[in-house]
Amino acid sequence: MRCVPLVVIALSLGFVPLASCRFEIESSGATFTSFNEAARFKAERTVDLPLSIEAGRRLAAATAHGDIVVRANSTGVASVRARLRASGNSQAEAQAVLERYSVALVETADGAKVEIKGEPLEVGSAMFTRKLAPRVDIAIAAPDGVSFDGRTGSGDVSASGALADTTLVSSYGDVSAAGIRGALTARTSSGDVTANDIAGEVEAKSSYGDVALSRIEATRISAASSSGDVTLADASARSCELKTSYGHVRVVRASGQIDASSSSGYVVGEDLEGLTIALRSGYGEVAARRVKGALTAHSSSGDIVAVGCHGALDASTSYGDVAADGVFTAVSAKSSSGDVQVNARSGSTLAGDWTLNSGYGSVALALAEGLACTLDAQTSYGSASCAFPLTVEAGYKARNGRIAGAINGGGPTVKLRSSSGDVSLKRLAN
To answer: Is residue 416 part of a domain?
Structure first.
């Protein structure tokens, strides 16, 4: 099968493409399946189906073209309403399309499914054939605790209420969920994904759209977009993985093992707590504010800003500055081409050696009073300075660009390095 752009098909056939249609190119000519929202001639039918299903059972619904909406309730009310709409070049044609389709509830081994049966109406000639099919929107009321699987080829899918494990999939449309009390899988090839008030494992993905999650309690959260922003707020999980290829990532008020990354956008983390927290960007700024835990912040081409942090710090950038402020147990701060500034506030401890390094920039470490360490500061092209009294070994000779000695009796080494910039150890102002 050979694909041809829709506009080319439309122009070559001398018409404007119908809204909501799918084109296919076959050896015999052009074929498309359509429902035209703007068509003059339409036919419509509503089908109401009584639904008998209990909590713990599974309900499935799928439509090639149309929206799916399911709402859970605590009253035990269960029903299915399907709205079929067809279009055509005449009223008779639209009605003929509609009459070819039916909707039924079919029992399955673990519950029930909404099944749409019918074949498109083919009209046209050997050179050009239209396959006319209706749009089928499905609205469902289900008892709390029912599992749900909803899928559409072209349309939105939404679920709300205390459903159990839920899967929502759209090829071309938005996906949304609220109040789910089970595992949630939400995916779309082209549209946004939103979910809030979820108690269960969450997997959310969009190929071309944003992903936004909030108020999540889960064992695991996975949110990804190939081309869109990813946001997470007010969440708690053992692990949180957030990533986008072309967009920004923002995570706020979250706890757990957090890994947030963007190939081309900024990454921001605020009010986070976890054993390990990783914020990474390929071409953007990385910012961490009020983070508790072992923080890794990396950018290939952007600044690193970490403020109000508590724990170990590993910050690095290839083309940007590093600026960090907090109470640290370990520090590794590096820039290939930028300044490095770290403020270690009262309460900081040296669990091991600290390293601050810049290839083409200044390096400055400001320490609170009373912190014991051994200073090793050196620059190739710049000056070295220390604001604390130093105890040096017998025979030590200070030389331009290098200072070494013990502070407050000594301890793990604080290594400051720059290839082309000043290096300094400063007193931290209160």
So the answer is: yes
Q: Say if CB 136 and CB 155 are below 8 A apart.
A: no
Structure tokens at 290: 């009020």
Name which of 296, 239, 288, 253 is nearest 267 in CA terms: 288
Instruction: Write the single-letter amino acid at 52.
Output: S
Residue 68 shares a structural domain with residue 161: yes
Q: Strand runs (DSSP E) across 210-362, as ranges?
A: 211-225, 230-244, 249-262, 267-281, 286-299, 304-317, 322-335, 340-344, 354-358
Task: Identify the CA nearest to 84 among candidates 44, 133, 114.
Answer: 44
* Whether residue 210 sits in one domain with residue 115: no
- Cα separation, 319 vs 299, in Å, equals 8
Name the residue range of residue 242's domain. 174-317
Per residue in 106-151, pLDDT tens? 999 999 999 999 999 988 756 778 889 999 999 999 999 999 999 9
Can you give the length of the chain in residues? Answer: 430
What's the token pair of residue 354?
């600290």
* pTM for this prediction: 0.88
